[in-house]
């Protein structure tokens, strides 16, 4: 049984949510006392992890006992933000999406119970719901097969684990948000995209929705052409702090005309929304345009998820000057360019 396919888009799956009893393992933990890992499951878990697909748990179970069993199987560290308790599966799935800060339409649920699958499909038709009997074929399904596996992909789980450590440190911190950010020793890097960056740039284009100015996705080949074009500027941004690297988290594509530069695409990973760095890349492009003596315009294509990016443009002083159907053309007079936050070191080159 496969449900939820009709309601979701064609984008990649970012997180696979596993049920436990008779799905990840054979047996019911609280009834049988002893359960066995289902054949092939550990390999599927590892394959998904290597591809940069996050994984979590949604299970009606006793939390400590379930976690202990996952540790016995050597699988505990693969699962982020597990929801183990007595809530409905739809509530658990929504909680996972919120905790990981990803769209619920990028989740897949694996469960052996038709009722649970149908309950989630009814509440969240965007979620891909798969019967536990389909686990073996998951690695071959296109929706679980990214075109490229980058270094950022391979390290995605560890990046999220670093994020959990940051969140825990922030909860324990007694000062203001800016005071806490100052303790992170953050470095934001901006550079022209090199060949090694292009696969991650494509991945960013495909995966990022909320902080994508147009929703347009670019292929590796298109990005390679832009990176080599004298009429374009393709910039990538990275972020790291004392807890580790966030990887490549930003992308900007500028079309450089003689009198007007056009920001064709600006995107930022949702993972850094709370780090106060959302405008750093935009202000860098504004500064480059000002120094080149040209006007700067930006294309913005609104959708139901990227309003935050529109607010970012407006906060930076961009005003709408033209509409081309649904496409809005924004322009800055370059009179208000913000310096980076005091708690952030910015490196360009």
Radius of gyration: 22 Å
Instruction: Give the domain tally.
Output: 2
Per CATH, the class of the largest domain reads Alpha Beta
In the CATH hierarchy, what is the superfamily of the largest domain?
A: Gcn5-related N-acetyltransferase (GNAT)
Low-confidence stretches: 4-8
Assess the beta-strand content as a share of residues: 25-35%
Number of DSSP E strands = 16
Structural class: alpha/beta
Kindly identify the CATH topology of the largest domain: Aminopeptidase
SS summary, helix count: 12
Describe the protein:
Residues 188-335 form the N-acetyltransferase domain. GO terms for molecular function: acyltransferase activity, transferring groups other than amino-acyl groups. It comes from Streptosporangium roseum (strain ATCC 12428 / DSM 43021 / JCM 3005 / KCTC 9067 / NCIMB 10171 / NRRL 2505 / NI 9100). This protein is α/β, with parallel strands linked by helices and 349 residues long. The chain folds into 2 domains: 15-144, Rossmann fold, CATH 3.40.50.1000; 151-348, Gcn5-related N-acetyltransferase (GNAT) (Aminopeptidase, 3-Layer(aba) Sandwich). It contains 12 helices and 16 strands. It has helices spanning 29-32, 41-50, 63-72, 89-100, 114-123, 151-154, 156-172, 177-183, 198-207, 220-228, 280-292, 307-315; strands at 2-3, 15-18, 25-26, 36-37, 54-60, 83-85, 107-111, 128-131, 186-192, 232-241, 244-256, 260-268, 295-300, 319-324, 327-332, 344-348. Strands 14-15-13-12-11-10-9-16 form an 8-stranded mixed sheet, with helices on both faces. A hairpin with a 3-residue loop joins strand 11 (244-256) and strand 12 (260-268). 40% of the residues are buried.
């Amino acid at each position: 049984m496969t449900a939820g396919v009709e309601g979701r888009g064609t984008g990649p799956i970012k997180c696979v949510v596993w049920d436990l009893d008779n799905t990840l393992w054979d047996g019911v933990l609280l009834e049988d006392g002893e359960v066995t890992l289902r054949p092939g499951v550990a390999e599927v878990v590892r394959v998904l992890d290597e591809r940069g697909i996050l994984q979590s748990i949604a299970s009606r179970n006793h939390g400590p006992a379930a976690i202990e069993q996952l540790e016995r199987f050597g699988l505990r560290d693969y699962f982020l933000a597990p929801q183990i308790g007595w809530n409905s599966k739809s509530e658990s799935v929504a909680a996972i999406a919120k905790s990981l800060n990803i769209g619920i339409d990028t989740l897949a649920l694996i469960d052996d119970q038709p009722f649970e699958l149908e309950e989630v499909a009814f509440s969240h038709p965007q979620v891909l719901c798969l019967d536990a009997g389909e686990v073996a074929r998951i690695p071959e399904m296109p929706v679980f097969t990214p075109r490229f596996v980058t270094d950022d992909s391979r390290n995605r789980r560890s990046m999220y684990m670093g994020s959990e450590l940051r969140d825990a440190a922030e909860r324990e911190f007694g000062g203001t948000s800016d005071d806490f950010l100052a303790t992170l020793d953050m470095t934001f890097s901006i550079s022209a995209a090199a060949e090694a960056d292009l696969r991650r740039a494509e991945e960013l284009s495909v995966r990022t929705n909320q902080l994508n100015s147009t929703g347009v996705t670019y292929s590796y080949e298109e990005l390679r052409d832009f990176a080599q074009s004298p009429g374009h500027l393709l910039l990538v941004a990275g972020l790291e702090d004392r807890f580790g690297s966030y990887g490549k988290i930003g992308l900007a594509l500028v079309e450089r005309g003689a009198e007007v530069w056009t920001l064709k695409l600006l995107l930022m990973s949702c993972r850094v929304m709370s780090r106060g760095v959302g405008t750093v890349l935009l202000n860098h492009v504004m500064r480059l345009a000002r120094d080149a003596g040209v006007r700067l315009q930006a294309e913005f294509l609104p959708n139901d998820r990227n309003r935050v990016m529109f607010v970012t443009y407006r906060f930076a002083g961009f005003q709408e000057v033209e509409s081309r159907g649904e496409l809005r053309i924004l322009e800055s007079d370059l009179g208000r360019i913000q310096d980076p936050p005091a708690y952030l070191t910015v490196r360009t080159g």
